């Protein structure tokens, strides 16, 4: 309290394009009036725009939960409980965090106290909100599938080379289409991603977002079959527990809507197939490299937040030394330290075992059927670590200048030794 007044943090949110910023204004207006009627003092306002309550990945929401630890407010006020969360797990989890910090959750619409009856009603409201979200998602998907059978655009980004007309059909953007053709032509001619990016930028082409091209701009373009005129919907795997979609994983073929000739083609089927063959050959060369780095493309430098890469240090008459290093220009990053590969991989693998693999015995069993020293073992383990770190958010490794793996540096464990830990946890 402050001068006898209860301190309030107001939280407002709207989620979809069907709602607008005015929705937040209306929520805040109701909350301000509620506080005035109860002689409460508003100390801070948090608002998330275009964020669904089915996920907790909301910047302002997370900031509010974090600020509750400072004990600067006594109540979190929402217009309705569904503004706070729309699933029982998140609601219970974050209510608990607030209560632990001495903060209550209140709603303008749902007037709940701490009576046994209100606890029952609260649980019922949370179940209704969760049902509403799940049912809305199901009905929305039903409508989008119907649109897909008509080859209508279902939202998102139409992709380089296409625009959406007034009838919600994809049409060719002639200038962007020239860029797509140029990408495929140069790629099949043996040019690297950076060379392609430089050529496109020199000719004044831009990405769909209006940015300049870089070496990371082409992977999706080069494997997307839509450029041959195929309309594809519902390919990517459904969102997981963290409400993230893994676009690298496809649903079963029977669930995918695929219509040949559903959209205008930009390149021929033969060109696309040739690009896939070339891409797979290129990928196989990378996979068959003599040295594999489990964390390549995953870990980031704590100085510049750029990706760190594997590096081999050869020494005359001595074994090679394998490290991870930041290859950002020295003018942009001051981190000149290299981290021993075996020490770092040991650290991350141990974290993965502790947090994930012991809970997923099936995956562990699959790994254990492989020969420890086989390349396939390393590939499978790398795949799983990437999945855990990137897509499931169980573990996120950031390497800072001071280093997080110093305690493991003395072990200098080779990979064969690391794998022994799997047997330990599998017993």
Descriptive notes:
With 427 residues, this protein is α/β, with parallel strands linked by helices. It folds into 3 domains: 7-129, Resolvase, N-terminal catalytic domain (Rossmann fold); 150-287, Putative Large Serine Recombinase, Chain B, Domain 2 (Hect, E3 ligase catalytic domain fold), CATH 3.90.1750; 300-426, no CATH class. Helices cover 42% and strands 15% of the residues. It has a 4-stranded parallel β-sheet with strand order 2-1-3-4, sandwiched between helices. It has a 3-stranded antiparallel β-sheet with strand order 10-11-12. A two-stranded antiparallel sheet has the order 5-6. Strand 3 (75-78), helix 3 (88-100) and strand 4 (104-107) form a beta-alpha-beta unit. Helix 9 (341-355) packs parallel to helix 13 (415-426).
């Amino acid at each position: 309290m402050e001068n006898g007044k209860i301190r309030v943090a107001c939280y407002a949110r709207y989620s979809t394009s069907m709602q607008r910023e005015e929705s937040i204004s209306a929520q805040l207006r109701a909350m301000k009036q509620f506080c005035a009627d109860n002689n409460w003092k508003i100390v801070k306002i948090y608002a998330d725009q275009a964020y669904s309550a089915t996920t907790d990945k909301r910047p302002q929401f997370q900031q509010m939960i974090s600020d509750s630890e400072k004990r600067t407010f006594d109540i979190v006020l929402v217009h309705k409980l569904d503004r706070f969360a729309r699933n029982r797990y998140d609601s219970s989890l974050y209510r608990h965090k607030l209560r632990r910090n001495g903060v209550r959750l209140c709603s303008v619409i749902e007037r709940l106290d701490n009576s046994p009856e209100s606890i029952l009603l609260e649980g019922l409201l949370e179940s209704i909100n969760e049902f509403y979200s799940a049912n809305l998602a199901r009905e929305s998907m039903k409508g989008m599938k119907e649109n897909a059978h008509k080859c209508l655009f279902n939202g998102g980004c139409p992709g380089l080379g296409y625009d959406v007309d007034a009838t919600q059909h994809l049409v060719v953007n002639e200038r962007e289409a020239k860029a797509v053709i140029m990408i495929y032509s140069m790629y099949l001619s043996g040019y690297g991603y950076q060379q392609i990016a430089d050529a496109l930028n020199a000719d004044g082409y831009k990405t769909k977002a209006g940015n300049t091209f870089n070496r990371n701009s082409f992977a999706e373009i080069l494997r997307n079959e839509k450029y041959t005129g195929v309309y594809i919907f519902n390919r990517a795997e459904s969102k997981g527990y963290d409400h993230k979609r893994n676009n690298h994983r496809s649903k079963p073929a029977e669930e995918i809507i695929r219509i040949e000739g559903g959209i205008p083609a930009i390149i021929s089927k033969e060109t696309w197939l040739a690009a896939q063959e070339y891409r797979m050959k290129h990928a196989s060369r990378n996979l068959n490299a003599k040295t594999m780095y489990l964390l390549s493309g995953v870990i980031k430098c704590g100085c510049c937040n750029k990706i760190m890469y594997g590096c081999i240090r050869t020494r005359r008459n001595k074994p090679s030394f394998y490290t991870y290093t930041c290859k950002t220009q020295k003018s942009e990053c001051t981190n000149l330290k290299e981290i021993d590969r075996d020490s770092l991989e040991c650290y991350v693998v141990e974290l993965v075992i502790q947090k994930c693999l012991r809970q997923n015995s099936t995956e562990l069993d699959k790994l254990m059927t492989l020969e420890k020293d086989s390349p396939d073992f390393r590939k499978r383990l790398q795949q799983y670590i990437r999945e855990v770190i990137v897509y499931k958010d169980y573990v996120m490794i950031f390497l800072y200048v001071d280093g997080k793996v110093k305690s493991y540096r003395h072990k200098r464990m080779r990979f064969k030794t690391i794998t022994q830990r799997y047997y330990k946890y599998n017993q």
